[in-house]
Amino acid sequence: MAKRVAVVLAGCGVFDGSEIHEASAVLVHLSREGAQAEVYAPNIPQMHVVDHVKGQPTPEQRNVLVESARIARGNIKDLAKLDVKGLDALIIPGGFGVAKNLSTWATQGKNCSVSKEVEDVLRAFHAAHKPIGLCCISPVLAAKIFPGCEVTVGHDTECEQWPYAKTAEAMQELGCRHVNSQVTEVHVDARNRLVTTSAFMCNAPIHDIHDGIGNMVREVLRLA
């Protein structure tokens, strides 16, 4: 019987939603492994809309569920309707939408809050001992909610290859353990059933990011 995996999106586009390549890679690898993806997103306004050509906010207003439906080809459900009982695992791709729409990490860092719907879903999977896959910036959600957990966002020393490495320091200040890893590698926190990989936290060729996400998906399914 195919494993059913909830994929939670945060909009459509790296600067104000889910990172499209990461979301696509998750769906491709789930399909390749014979798993059934069920896509969800919260029915809430985006924090803001970013012009991805200029990299600047615009006056537009958009909805996270409506925008996420672009990636899901319309086959998407309101996150409020997610029932952990019928699902085997959870995966949340990265993108700034995680830090803007699913939490306030973008503006408050380690002092952020996680949206109640997202926190409830994460806690439900965790309590049911069902695996959670997180990539790119989304491990900050686990760092905030599960003190003492182990995650990776790549490296903890900032450089050209790792421009967002200070994220690791902020997560450590929340009491979690950060494990340095390469872009194609994953870290598995067996106690918390968390599988994390750095994805676009690294300036790496897109095929390496795709491969790292594939390794994350396979580990999540192995634990499911």
UniProtKB/TrEMBL annotation:
Give the top-rank taxon of the lineage listed in the UniProt record for this protein: Eukaryota
Protein's recorded name: GAL3B protein
Q: Which organism is it from?
A: Ptilorrhoa leucosticta
